[in-house]
Design brief:
By secondary structure, the protein is α+β, with helices and mostly antiparallel strands. The chain contains eight helices and twelve strands. The longest helix is centred in the first third of the chain and has 14 residues.
Length: 315
């Protein structure tokens, strides 16, 4: 990835952008994204903004995938007990213990606003999380509920009206439902055995493998974030072996999941792509579990993507 950053930097220089200007824009984006974006990804965004073509569309998609997945937020996470006043760029993980009512209000300039809050706890302490404006929509997700594990990324701390410490979500912050690879001992509440906690985390209550999806594919286009499971008819769009700039081999499997008149694309990377392509045939009815839906920044269309915990099952 270092080599990749140097190539993009040189392409910007060749396009007539000075080192001073490039460095200034790098610093601005590092501040904007609060340290949670890699340098190659930042340089790529700068190149895109200046209209500098640094790669084919296929490799742009690869870079987009790598820049998102290379960051492990667990490396930045701290226990809730370590949160102090006036901290920024906070990453904490915990279980939702209380959810407060979302409130609509009118700002001084007359524009409408929304605020929502909830409490999360880890083994060390509990704290109130406050969300504003569009960030409040995560609380309306069907899977946002008491008992769920979440990760707060890019928060800042301040005292509320009751003088108690709160964490507010920053402009570029994010709430991750069911985060991957959480350290279980950090969020086990006193009195709960780790084996019992592991079981409840891996097997949600009242959910069986035979349960029908509550989502339709059409409804997914209005959603974003974690999707517990979704079913449909599958078609393989393509399966490719790719060579990254680092020289490493990877694989990309693109599927189209359909029901009646609606469809959505599915991206599966790496060895999981190899495993899944062996399982399916066009026309199979499949169920996808623990996938993430987000907007493709190049097509502006919603797509499903596999995570480490995702699974594909032929029904």
């Amino acid at each position: 990835m270092v080599e990749r950053a140097e190539e993009i930097y040189q392409a910007l220089l060749d396009a007539g952008i000075s080192e001073k200007e490039i460095d200034q824009q790098i610093n601005e984006k590092e501040t904007e994204f609060q340290g949670f974006m890699t340098k190659p990804a930042i340089l790529y965004l700068i190149a895109k903004e200046h209209g500098v073509d640094v790669d084919s569309s296929e490799n742009k998609e690869i870079l987009n995938h790598i820049s998102e997945d290379i960051i492990d937020y667990n490396d930045f996470a701290i226990p809730i007990s370590s949160v102090e006043e006036n901290m920024s760029n906070i990453v904490i993980t915990g279980r939702v213990e209380r959810i407060f009512t979302i409130r609509d209000f009118v700002r001084k300039d007359g524009s409408p606003g929304r605020v929502g809050s909830f409490q999360i706890c880890d083994k060390s302490k509990c704290i109130k999380i406050v969300l504003w404006s569009e960030n409040v929509t995560i609380m309306e997700n069907d899977y946002f509920k008491k008992g769920e594990i979440i990760q707060v990324v890019g928060g800042y701390s301040k005292k509320g009206r009751d003088e108690k410490l709160e964490v507010h979500l920053g402009r570029q912050g994010n709430i991750i439902l069911a985060p991957e690879d959480v350290v279980l001992t950090d969020i086990v509440k006193p009195g709960i055995a780790e084996s019992e906690f592991s079981e409840t985390l891996s097997k949600p209550k009242n959910e069986s493998s035979n349960k029908k999806s509550t989502w339709t594919i059409q409804s997914l286009h209005n959603k974003e974030g974690f999707i517990r499971f979704i079913s449909g008819i599958v078609k393989v769009e393509f399966f490719k072996e790719l060579t990254l700039k680092s020289g490493e081999k990877s694989f990309l499997l693109k599927l189209i999941l359909s029901e009646e008149s609606s469809s959505i694309k599915v991206n599966i990377w790496g060895l999981k792509a190899v495993e899944c392509v062996k399982l399916i045939t066009d026309g199979d009815n499949i169920k996808l579990s623990n996938v993430v839906i987000k907007e493709n920044s190049y097509t502006n269309e919603k797509e499903l993507s596999f995570t480490k915990k995702s699974n594909l099952e032929v029904l």
